[in-house]
Amino acid sequence: MKRHFYLVSGWASLALGALGAFLPLLPTVPFVILAAFCFARSSPRLEAWLVTHPKFGHHILAWREKGAISRKGKIAATAAFALSIFVAAIFSPWPWVMLPVIAAAVTGSWLWTRPEA
Q1: Structure pTM?
Q2: How confident is the model over 12-28, as pLDDT tens digits?
Q3: Keywords in UniProt for this one (predicted)?
Q4: How far, in Å, CA of 59 to CA of 31, rounded?
Q5: 83 with 99: CB under 8 angstroms?
Q6: How far apart are CA 95 and CA 10, in angstroms?
Q7: 30-66 pLDDT, tens per residue?
Q8: C-alpha 110 chain-centroid distance
Q9: What contacts 109, CB < 8 A, 6 or more positions away?
Q10: CA distances for 15 relative to 9, 19, 23, 32, 112, angstroms
């Protein structure tokens, strides 16, 4: 039962990561890292496929070994935060406009304290 939960969670995370490749506010790499975590507990073959993937493998290994996020990833995330704040400023009434600002401040603070790959 536990193995099936992790397998379904891994596929769901991978699907969200794939959507993130096309939707600017949905992150890709964190969902792929989560998928690798889930596949490590359910399907060694799928985990190996992700870890050796030419696009995402190095992100997964950097996170596992050092908890590291690349500078390029940090900059991309910060740009996505800025875009979401801009969109919220246009379309959201007060005080809802502050939600992306608070989320960006909290998440961005954590993100920039991670070591770089």
Answers
A1: 0.77
A2: 999 998 998 887 667 88
A3: Membrane, Transmembrane, Transmembrane helix
A4: 11
A5: no
A6: 36
A7: 889 999 999 999 999 999 999 999 988 988 999 889 9
A8: 13
A9: none
A10: 10, 6, 12, 9, 26
Residue tagged 């939707």 (tokens): 23
- Supply the pLDDT for residue 49: 94
Q: Which two tokens stand for residue 27?
A: 């992150």
> How long, in residues, is the chain?
117
Contact 8, 16 (CB under 8 A): no
Helices (H), 1-117: 2-20, 29-40, 44-51, 57-66, 71-91, 98-113
Check: CB of residue 31 under 8 Å from CB of residue 13: yes
- Could you identify the residue written with the tokens 């496929």? 49
